[in-house]
Structure formats: C-alpha cells, structure tokens
Amino acid sequence: MNTKNSNLIKEVDRRRTFAIISHPDAGKTTLTEKLLLFGGAIRLAGSVKSRRAQNHAVSDWMEIEKQRGISVTSSVLQFEYNNCCINILDTPGHQDFSEDTFRTLMAADSAVMVIDCAKGIEAQTKKLFHVCKMRGIPIFTFINKMDRMGKDPFELIEELEQVLDIKSYPMNWPIGNGRDFKGVYDREKNLINLFGEGNHGQSKTRTEKLNIEDSSLSSLLGDELHSQLKEDIELLDVAGDSFDLDEVLKGNLTPVFFGSALTNFGVEPFLESFLELTTPPTPRDSNLGMVDPKKENFTGFIFKIQANMNPTHRDRIAFLRICSGEFKKGMSVNHVQENKKIRLSQPQQFLSQERVVVETAYPGDIIGIHDPGIFKIGDSLCEDNSKIQYHGIPLFAPEHFCKVFTKNALKRKQFIKGINQLSEEGTIQVYKQPNIGVEELIIGVVGALQFEVLEYRLKNEYGVDIIMESLPYQYIRWINGEGFSPDSLNLTMDSLLVEDQDLNPVVLFINEWSISRVAERNESISLKEISLRNK
Ligand code: GDP
C-alpha cells in the first residue's frame, strides 16, 4: 500500500458524517451547539443559526438570504473530536423546510433523531425518519429536555416501535422526571451519571459517576427512585430488545440516549458512544456497482444547490458530497452527466461558523463548488474516465401545489427557462396535465416558502411576473405497476392525474381518504411517496 493510499484510508476511517433530524423546537440547534462546544469549535455555546430567520418577512428573496445569515453558511459544520473528523449536515426546519431538507439526508452516513421528551415523535421527525429508513442508515435517538416534565420513558420507547416501527435499545435510562430528574443510569458502564444544572449549559459540565449498587445511592436518590430504577432496568433487560451492532448499522435498531441539550447533560457521553458505534463513510452504489470510499479515484455527487449565497454576485453554490478518493484544490474532474472536464478551483468548506477555501478533503466531507449554472441535483463528478454515476437523488413528495402562468405571454420563453432552472436546482417540481391543449404548469413544493422564492427569482433573474393560483392538493403519489396504463386508472373526482418532469405518471390528492380509495379501486398499482430517479 502506498503512503497516499494509507493516508486516504486513515482519513476515511476517522470521518463521521451525519444529519440531525427533528421536529422544530425539539432542540436540534441546541444539541448542535453543544456538540460544537465539545469539539472545541466554539468556546461558549453561541447561536448557530440566526433565530430571526424563524419569523422573517418572506417577500424578499435577498432579504431571506440576508436574514438567514449563518443559517445558510452553516449548512454543513465540520469539527474535530477525539481524532474524529465530524461533519454535521443541517436539515432546515421551520419555514426553511423544503425538499433540500430531505435531499441532505442522501449525503449523510447516519442520523441523530432528536425527540422532545414531552412531545414524543412529531410530524416532521416522522417524515425525515422515513427517508433515513429508506436509505438503511444507522439512526441514533437523543431524547431531549429531560430536565423538564416529560412522558414516561417506557411510553417513549413504545412510541418508537409503534409510530416508527423501529426496535430500540436504551443506552441509558432516566431516573426521575421533571423537577425530580436525578440523572441517568448508563447500562453499559453500570454507572449513574448525576444531573447537575451546572453553569446553564454554557460550557462543559462535570457529572458524578456512581455504581448502581453504591450504598450512598439510596440516600442520594431516595429509596423510592432507587428501587424504581432497579425495577426499570430489570424490565428492560428481560423484556426489551437486545443490543446488536449489526442491526444498528442496518438502521433496524436505534440506540436511545436520554439527556438535556440545554443543560448539557448527557451530551458528551452521547457523542462518544455515537462516534464509536456509527459508521465512517461506506461504499456507495453507482451505475458501475459499489464504489469503495478508499479507492483513489475522486468521486462525488451534488445533493443541493444554493442560489444567491452572495447577494453581490448572482452565484450559486453546488454542495458536493465526496464519496471516494482525495479532493485537491484546483483538480480537474469529469462532470459525468454533461461529459465535460471542469476545474475545481475555489471550493469552499464549512468549518464551524465560517466558510473557508479548502485545500484537501476526503470521503464524507462536503465541499461547496461555484456553479455558473452547469449543475443539476444528482450530478456526479469523477476524477478518472470511468464515468461513475451515483444513483440520482429521488423526488420527494411536495405538499403544496399551484398553477403558474406568466402575466405577459411574450415572456413565455424566459418563463420556461426560469422554471427549468429552478426545477434543476431542486427548488420546485414541475407537472403537466397530459393531453391538455393549452400548456398549463403545475408547481409542487415541499415547503410553502419556495413559492415566494419562485416568484421572487423569476422576477429578478428572468424579468418574469407570474400569477400563482393555489390548488387544493396536499398529497402526491407516483404510480408504479406492471402494464399500467394511465387511461385505465380509476380515480376519485377530486384527484388529478399529471406527469412529472421525467414524464412519469403521478396523481395529486386532496386528502388521505382519496389515496386509500384510489389504492382500493386500482389493486394492480402501487402508490409511492418518493420517486427514485435514474435507477
Ligand atoms: P430546534 O428548533 O430543534 O433547533 O430547537 P432549539 O434548539 O432552537 O430549541 C427550542 C427551544 O427548546 C429553545 O428555547 C431551547 O432553549 C429549548 N431547549 C432545547 N434543549 C432543551 C433542554 O434540554 N431542556 C429545556 N428545558 N429546554 C431545551
């Protein structure tokens, strides 16, 4: 093995690239801040994202970018901890929630699911979880806000199984609840970590560690909590799922950690355990079979395109996930889909809160490449001439739909150009009704904010004013079925058959009831929430 390759192997093995998934307000930002704090990336846990972004006036796209501030540049955060190089991928929530949030998960090797202990599993967590499950990546659960009154921990564990259909293994177990929260029992080390408010989570806190059999424990916890703890642990050992690392790595079993990000309780043990159990970058599937990250040929794919990061230039940044080989600044690569050579001269990386020009990067890392409008979501780059293409990024189900027209018919050409560009960047999905004389476009988006982005960018970049007519649909299903013909489809009155941008048949629905009716009436077809492309 040459030294170049041994360096690559070392760098791959120490990479951990993951996304934190949660419903808004569960504590994703707070947990991210604390992880950065342990990595030494920030001394005092400051605000990772600008909170003003949560209630901005959404009429001005530039303004959106300005207000988003760090939120945009912190799409990926890299930091070091215990000789691991960690990449956290941000999955925007609140009004920022969009298809990008789902697509980001395609670039992650594992996921951390943050759950509010009082609320349990919420809608957005569920959606993001399903994408992780589809990819079969390891999912770790952090049940947050244990300093507050929450649901019974057994109930939370059961919810994982009932709502998400995943087995779980509590790595630690809470003692007491809310005001009486005393700490957690670490099942592997057979130790109690006592909860102390510390200095309000502003820096690292110390936790005392005591054995479960320790005689002083009864007086510390009280007899009742101590015996309750022993009972709970016995029940978990007897009736709970057992730990199996293979199952964790396949995404069938989630290790569960209880803690409190705000008060910094349980965060460091979680981080250590997570880094040990989760996977470094693994081989990825392509048109030429599985590609080993430790192969010297540099390859990667684009999973996100961010427009107008710098308002003074109308530039775009394409986010590339490196899948194999070493990246070097200035290297020439093949843009596989366009069959063109390009030079990667000013790539950027996202280190804690700054963007810096990156000299070298490795599998698992995300780099930002200047995009003069040549990239599409899902494009592959490859150093040698092997033309490796990673499987395309799927289309995820939009939840908001409208008909879009240009106000001025003479601007039709620019309108179509803008719509195509925004569709390739992944901001919108475009549908057409088959066999309809006048061409009418239906636009679908995952987050409603994208409509405002569409309107603003068409006006500012293409000089096109549009009219949007909102449609009542909320669900979309791609149709698969042997010998299926769209004409034979038996739909409900309130659903609509359209074609997506790849001319695949899809149906738009107003409610879930209609979906089940259509499924019943057309037994030979299957209705899918996600469309896998280029497969
Ligand atoms: P995000 O929307 O998931 O990024 O959530 P944030 O990290 O912004 O947290 C939402 C709110 O919950 C904020 O007011 C946090 O201070 C609070 N919070 C986060 N973690 C904890 C915790 O462990 N305990 C308590 N009591 N509050 C928390």
UniProtKB/TrEMBL annotation:
Pfam family name, one: RF3_C
Gene3D superfamilies with a match to the protein in the record: P-loop containing nucleotide triphosphate hydrolases (3.40.50.300), Peptide chain release factor 3, domain III (3.30.70.3280), Translation factors (2.40.30.10)
Residues binding GTP: 22-29, 90-94, 144-147
Domain Tr-type G: 13-282
Compartment(s) where it occurs, according to its Swiss-Prot or TrEMBL record: Cytoplasm
Domain of life: Bacteria
Main localization (coarse): cytoplasm
GO CC terms, sorted: cytosol
Disulfide bond keyword on record: no
CDD domains: RF3, RF3_II
GTP-binding recorded as keyword: yes
Keywords assigned by UniProt, alphabetized: Cytoplasm, GTP-binding, Nucleotide-binding, Protein biosynthesis
Single GO biological process annotation from the record: regulation of translational termination
GO molecular function, one term: translation release factor activity, codon nonspecific
Family: Belongs to the TRAFAC class translation factor GTPase superfamily. Classic translation factor GTPase family. PrfC subfamily.
Summary of the function given for this chain in its UniProt record: Increases the formation of ribosomal termination complexes and stimulates activities of RF-1 and RF-2. It binds guanine nucleotides and has strong preference for UGA stop codons. It may interact directly with the ribosome. The stimulation of RF-1 and RF-2 is significantly reduced by GTP and GDP, but not by GMP.
Name by which UniProt lists this protein: Peptide chain release factor 3
Source organism per UniProt: Alkalibacter saccharofermentans DSM 14828
Lineage: Bacteria, Bacillati, Bacillota, Clostridia, Eubacteriales
Gene name per UniProt: prfC
